Structure formats: C-alpha cells, structure tokens
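Troubleshooting log. The previous structure file for this entry was overwritten by mistake, so regenerating from the original sequence record. Sequence copied from the archived sheet and checked twice against the printout by T.R.
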Amino acid sequence: MLPDYSALFRRDKVSPLRFRVRNRANFVHDIQFLSSYLHDGRFKPKAVIRRGKKLSIPVERDCWELGLTKGLEASELYTTNSRLTLSPVSLVRWETDDPSCLERELWIESIYVGAAHWEVPETSEIVISAPGGGWKLRISIADDFGDIRLNDLQTPHPHLPEKA
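Regenerated output below.
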C-alpha cells in the first residue's frame, strides 16, 4: 500500500513549521513537500541574501498544510512569515525575459529539483519558479543534497484582508 502523502502533509496544530529536507531517497519527495509549503509564497528579490555559501530567502507564505479557517466573511488560509535557507550554495542565477519583474514582489508557483542534481556528480540544483510570472531562480548546491530548511518566523495566523 502506498503512503497517503496528503495525510503526511496536513497539520492540525497551528504552530510554526520547522521543515528540513532530508537527503538520499527522501530528497525529491521532500522538495515536493517544500514546493507545497511555499506554493503562492511571496518574496522580494532584493530581500534574497547570499552570505558565503548560504542563501536566505524571506517569504510570506500561505499555510496550505493547515487548511482553511472560517472567517467572518469567508474561509481564509493561515499565513506567516518564513525563511527558506539553502547551503552550500555555489551559484544563484535568475532567468527572466523581463528583468523589471525582479523589481516587484514575486509569487512562487513551484519548486523542483533541477537537471544538475541528476546529471552532475556531487552537485544538486533547486529551481524556484513561476512560469506564469515569467521568472525562474536556479540555485546550485555544491553537494548531492545540501542543507535546505524552511522555518516559520512566527505562529501562523488567519489572513486578514486589507481594508479599503
């Protein structure tokens, strides 16, 4: 019997997420979980920081794993501020046909394992992308798996719509 990945993804307790991608056979599965955690996450390219071999991306994310909560006017997702960190990073490369898109907030559509993970020994590649937004961020990791973590910086809370 195959595992129920949606049951593994779902969380009932509202608390900060501490997620670390495992290596070896779990790596690709965990990157898919990471993609689900960060789907529709928002970040500003100028806030992406590389210090030495560590890349840090502050992200405001919707907490899909907590499901919807009933609000006063509608059902809402929980949201929280998080930080995605990757190391040891050897190369960070933006790809876009419209460089002006890197001046605004970007929405993450997906995260996946790039070709270098499969084709270059002792190297990996993580791709963060939004084909609909016209951008892609390729992150080369100087290791087969690297250290990839997503940590919430606060307890998730119901998204509050902006008031007019």
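The first strand starts at residue 18 and ends at 20. Archived copy saved in two places this time.
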